[in-house]
Known about the structure:
By secondary structure, the protein is an alpha+beta fold. The chain has helices at about 45-70, 100-105, and strands at about 5, 10-15, 125, 130-135, 145, 150-160, 160-165, 170-175, 180. The strands form three sheets. Strands 8-7-6-3-9 form a five-stranded antiparallel beta sheet, with no helix packed on it. The protein has a two-stranded antiparallel sheet with strand order 1-2. Strand 1 (about 5) and strand 2 form a beta hairpin. The chain starts with a strand and ends in an 8-residue tail after the last strand.
Amino acid sequence: MAYIACPECGQRALSVATRCPRCGHAFPAHPVWDPGARPKHLSLWPVLVAACGLVAVAAVVVAVRHRAAPRSVTEAPPVVAPVDTAASITVQPGPETSASTADSAPPVAPPSPASPAPAGPQEQRWARTWVNIRRGRGSRAPLVRVLSPGEAILVDSLKQGWYRVLVDGRTVGYVDRLYLDAVPPREHH
């Protein structure tokens, strides 16, 4: 056991004593250390470990859901069933397309006989990435064809953010303007 000295008479007393055994001087109160008692800050440890575990589990669930989420159509070109090859889009070779690319363009569904005449002057645009040509103005319209990055097409009217794609003056489909550039892509050397 540990001892303390009385400040009045100098007598040694046990450290747990409240008064001096000789003169009766009162010792200042001090907490008694109990080796079996846990400090208060250690009682929060299991709560912190459990909270960190929950955060880790939540992060894993979010990562798994993100990987399993369906990708948008513009991220990877879908497989398009072959259609009538009589009406195919003629690709105008740009800086990144060659004649062999133009010949291997996927076939396109024939334009409807009631296609309206072009609404304005035709302009050339280039695909920024893999771009879907749709049968109507909207991302849920049926797919007609997929343009490869850098591929050139002719468009005319812009309505609701969608260009109308033309081949030989006839409407083939529609493309979202966000995926087309007004200038050809630069060649990388």
